[in-house]
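Intended use. Records like the one below are meant for learning the mapping from a protein sequence to its folded structure. Do not use them to infer anything beyond what is encoded.
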Amino acid sequence: MRALVVDDSRFIRNYLHSVFAERGVECVEAADGQQGLSCLRSSGPFSVALVDWNMPVMSGIEMLQAARADPAFNATKIVMVTTEAENDHIEAALEAGADEYLVKPFDEAGLFDKLRMAGVEEP
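Structure written out for the chain above:
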């Protein structure tokens, strides 16, 4: 399993990287949606991309829309991981093609529950 973590928070990237590393999952990090899209194109394939909503340069929803417009990424599960908890954000992300939606703060059990719900194989 390979995971892409796209978040402008270094803390979140480090946390998710360490959680995945403990389970033997290769993890690639990006600090904004544009970098995340570049990683999808140059470093893929990924089993899952965990994408924050609010980031500089390109937002997570913009990255999600661009990724879902490219059939090359159809097999990559995309989980929005964000503080945006309003129903309109959740609906917009799911309509744009997100496989799941995880609200920060979360714990490791909650993360892996959402990954299972998204159809990501257990590492």
